[in-house]
Amino acid sequence: MYKSALLIIIATIFLADTAFAGLSFVKKTRLVTKDADNVVLQQQYFSEGDMIRIEEESSGIEGNPGIKIYDLKKKKLYTIMLNVKLYLEQELASEKDVILFEPPPEKRYIFGKDLRVEKKKTGKDTIEGYETTIYEVKVIKKAEKGKDKEDRVLEKYLIWEAGELDGIPVKYEFELSGESKKIIEYVDIKTDVIDPSMFVIPEDYKAISPF
Q: What is the pTM of this model?
């Protein structure tokens, strides 16, 4: 069961590299507590082939709002600082699925005999006009003799996968401590061709070196 669950999650996440001409969406991260429900981060994503562009929501941000351009073929990340017309070039180690979506458990844990992933279908929902399947995902640590009375859940979250979009995730809901939760939503989803100029550094911007 452990191996099957892992294979399902891996297959789902890697469908991010779909046959779409291009994929764009707005990613909203919300923190929900007993007293508040606030958007703490909002970003616009554009993805096509080996290129990804992420635009930060500049409202309420002090300093320089920026743009990140990922060139997966060259393994480069370009951070563009709009207010000062500068950009920083760095080596890139991240994979496409991790940049676009949340890293699956097998990329955040070292799995052995003591850990397993369970993924269970819990229902259906419609998000942004797309029918989705809701799954509950658990990372479970096997009880250690002499220490634990029962298996322990290290992490539990819900994920909404859109079948019409080749199964890509469009919403996450993570349980946090203190009866709070983090919700990540993908809205304004489009699968149109993206203008190649979106992935080009403006000519009048100057390169700077890392500190």
A: 0.81
